[in-house]
Amino acid sequence: MNNLEISVLDKGYVDLLNHTDQGDLLVVNAARCSFDKQHEELDEDKDEKLIKYLAKHGHLLPFRHPSVTLRIHAPLFVLRQLGKHQVGFSWSEVSRRYITGEPEFYEPGVWRKRPEDNIKQGSGGALSLQTQEVWRDKSIAVNSNALEAYHNFLDHGVAPEMARMMLPQSMYTTTVTTGTLLGWYNLYKLRMEEHTQLETQDYAEAIGDILEECFPMSWEALNEY
Fold this sequence. Notes:
It contains eight helices and five strands; from the N terminus they run ββααβαβααβααα. The chain is α+β, with helices and mostly antiparallel strands.
């Protein structure tokens, strides 16, 4: 199943690279280790009950044993929100100190207005269609100017590690991220919260869909309890 890829936003994706085989079985065997017991095959009745018991009563250590590695292609501002989750994770990211390939930029399909309740984060509904066009054009122009400046710096011998400063937060970047089942669940739970930026929620939803495919019993139990 290591070929599951979910498209996100206009150019992004979450791609499953690797995961613990029979992760649900690993969860129950980790739990049974206290009694020096182990199952060779998953018992869909008994093991599902045990997984639900563990999740319901907060016995979460067994959920740290399975792991998943994802390749995530996302705008910088999204990766910075996802990357705040460090416990149970290892992150590797594309470095523009070493590469000078053509950058990609996120172009929102909808530009949202500021929230009406005057809080410092989040957004309200969509701007008017006429205003949408104005800010879409401005966004394209900003990204185009940034890309032109980036190439100009490189063409004149500026080091890539400095030329990259010209590139905006809308630029896509790529990480390979390995995390435990419990780590991914904590990321998913926090980044699906209603105050999370919508673009980041889209990535969290894609991550959740992949984790559900990898560990159906455990993912269902963690989300239920």
